[in-house]
Automatic annotation (TrEMBL):
Catalytic reactions on record: 2 D-alanine + ATP = D-alanyl-D-alanine + ADP + phosphate + H(+)
UniProt protein name: D-alanine--D-alanine ligase
Lineage per the UniProt record: Bacteria, Pseudomonadati, Bacteroidota, Sphingobacteriia, Sphingobacteriales
PROSITE patterns xref list: ATP_GRASP, DALA_DALA_LIGASE_1, DALA_DALA_LIGASE_2
Swiss-Prot/TrEMBL cofactor(s): Mn(2+); Mg(2+)
EC numbers: 6.3.2.4
GO terms for MF: ATP binding; D-alanine-D-alanine ligase activity; metal ion binding
Amino acid sequence: MKKTIALLTGGTTGEWVVSVKSAATIAQNLDSDKFEVYKIMLNESGWFYEPADSVKVAIDKNDFSLTIAGRKIKFDGVFIAIHGSPGEDGKLQGYFDMIGLPYTTSNALTSAITMNKGYTKAIVNGIKDLNVAKSVQIFRNTGFDITTIKAELKLPYFVKPNSGGSSIGMTKVKHADDLEPALEKAFKEDDQILIEEFVEGREFSVGVFKAKGEIKILPATEVIPSNEFFDFEAKYTPGASEEITPGRMTDEEKNRVEEVVKAVYEKLNCNGVVRIDYFLEHETGKFYFIEINTIPGQTITSFIPQQVAAYGMELKDFYTQIVEESI
């Protein structure tokens, strides 16, 4: 018997555009023989299902159900494809936990913690063979000293919203005089800012997921951006960066990276598919953790679909495994 799945898309941040594209990829590849899928849009106007041949139907938030032509539709589970808030920061996960509806992502606590780059780095720091770049975390409503920050960190450094995604609001600062405008830009996106020293190295991104109770590692993608760094344009504009999947790593590097990212997945108590970004430092080959995305992009230009193909798996089978593991 088919499972009835709500594919939740949209969101309330600038990442909603990416979310809609991710949901389109997922919808096209969810196995119609196994799942009856309803794409649910969440935005500032509400939560609703919009069939192609009818007016939109609001979700009953008391039990997350739909009523169509007098028939009440209840879901077996939710495939959350919302990047940023409220899909990636634990809010929706907390709601679904309260009403007892399973979902495809990490739980509310893990989602909330991993949305905060600074807190995540503090937790994973100490994992064998994992390094973190030196950084300073500041808050909008508490005092911080620009002079002290400039003295503590060596240029260049990245200024990034602590809870943002898709590199929105992020700046690479090469000159100390450019720190203040970079902070202003980042504070437009978040009340917390992470200022992090630049690591000179090769950049990679790797998908990690759980299926049949086992943590599996996808082939990593090596990222060579044509821009100054892997920003929003480089991520979502075809041809704006060179992406090599599988990335160029020695067998030793590959084995070490797989052990590190598996340990990260376990320590953060992740579920579903996540994406972990990292550098391999040029001089030393050391692994430097950048960040984790608990709801990574699934657009046609995103890494996860590329890596699933390189893994030798069809997206239909991949999404089936994600749903069946969680729901």
